[in-house]
Structure prediction request, 264 residues.
Amino acid sequence: MSLVAPSLPSWVDNLRSKVTDNLKQNKDLISYALATHDTATPHSDAPVPRVRYVVHRGFVNERRKDGDGSNNAVKDHSDKDLISDKLVITTDARSPKARQLASTPTVEIAWWLAATQHQFRFLGRAYVLASPSFSSATNTKPFPFPSEHLAPYGDFSWEDERIRQFRKMSPELRASFCRPVPGTTVAAWGGKLEDLPVTLPEGVDKAENDEQKKQLEQALENFALVVIDCTEVDLVDLGSQPNTRTRWTFDTASNEWKEEELVP
Prediction:
């Protein structure tokens, strides 16, 4: 059976084109602020917000080049991209962020694309895709992951997607995933930061020795994707006169996206 690319809401192409335009002018405009809820804090009886910058890793199965380590199909029978409307970021599965998402998956993203003067905000639910072999005492809650709902097509290999994203990381970022648990105090850990690996190659087949192979296996086990299923997208255009604002809202009853113009 031939593959058919899913029908995507108009905000997806809107975002992809604006990201491309911004990166042509400033390659650093690829990060956005991700807000989560923290229910395990001594600071308050109520959940407290936690926010940090994360790097946009594209949409699920969005590809920039061939030969990137994935066997997933790239195009459908009519040469359309086989992507979904789900955003992707990465995390360490042992991190507080992953624990927060396991408890409360609702997130919001704010992304200022300065080169073209556009602000995107995304509201949705975030799901952690950990390694099949991952286990950690720091995160005792399971990571629910509705794989079929989030996939761009049937029989999509999520493990291929996870490994592809790992291979795309810089050598320095890959090495960060075999460090002690993020947020651990150095005193409690008891080691020396200068003894940690600085870089790691793409895969165990490129490891220089047994120690590096072990480090790569550990890093890949800790490496996780976060897939964000948006339910509302808000775009403000401050680069035009008059300024404009558009909101897309997903209607669960009709299973369709609704688009409307708002006052900026």
The domain at 10-173+223-262 is CATH 2.30.110.10 (Pnp Oxidase; Chain A). The CA atoms of residues 11 and 248 lie 7 Å apart.
